[in-house]
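Run folding on both entries below.
>entry_1
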Amino acid sequence: MHVKDAMSTVVLTIGPAHTLRQAAQLMAARRIGAAVVLDNDNSGIGILTERDILNSLGAGENPDRETAQTHTTSDVVFAAPDWTLDDAADAMVRGGFRHLIVLDDHEPVGVVSVRDIIRCRSAATERARAVPA
């Protein structure tokens, strides 16, 4: 299986000036754990995750004043749609993160998460069990 088979193509894109509260509300409404942060003036493409927001809140920071720009990971590892799920999982383990932005022609086309990989592998295992030997 490939990243394109597992990734979510509903990509939440926000700007660097969004507050963490705004980002959290948008992420919660879409039931997703990461937002792609587009900052054409500075770092390009970054990612803001639920963990970034949680760390900020845990540090006592105000989610109405803190911006995505301050908490965005900008040294992102990107995946390609034709990566295998093993490639994606290996990158996540090596980097210690749970989401990969999927780029096609330098444009974000999806996000793949550990949960997406588990879901696909679990479905493949169930299909294999259903096939009589």
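>entry_2
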Amino acid sequence: MTAKISYDGVEVGTELPAQSFPVSRATLVRYAGASGDFNPIHWNEKFAKEVGLPDVIAHGMFTMAEAIRVVTDWTGDPGAVAEYGVRFTKPVIVPNDETGALIEVSAKVAAKLDDEARTVRVDLTATSAGQKVLGMSRAVVRLA
């Protein structure tokens, strides 16, 4: 695959289409099975509260993966992401109800880095329940 977005057609400040990602307890159990991370803070409400959390929380790597989907959907090529890093600032709390939690992600092109490599830096903002859940969320993306 190759990125469908042209480096020449992108300007600093270009906003990527924002997306929202629902998270339920079932989502967390499926992710635990796929990742092998069965820490009970991600599925056992009693345990999560015993260790001082307000409720079950989403896996940090799951939250990170959901956020980068805004970039990969925009480029049309997951392989276009050359670098990606975040700081985990707040957990995504996932109540045991019909709605669960929602991760809301927006992103914009913050810098054009290298004309020859056709790379840009994309800064992402991820929130849940009005709280910023990822800090310093940045990706270096290779465009067409």
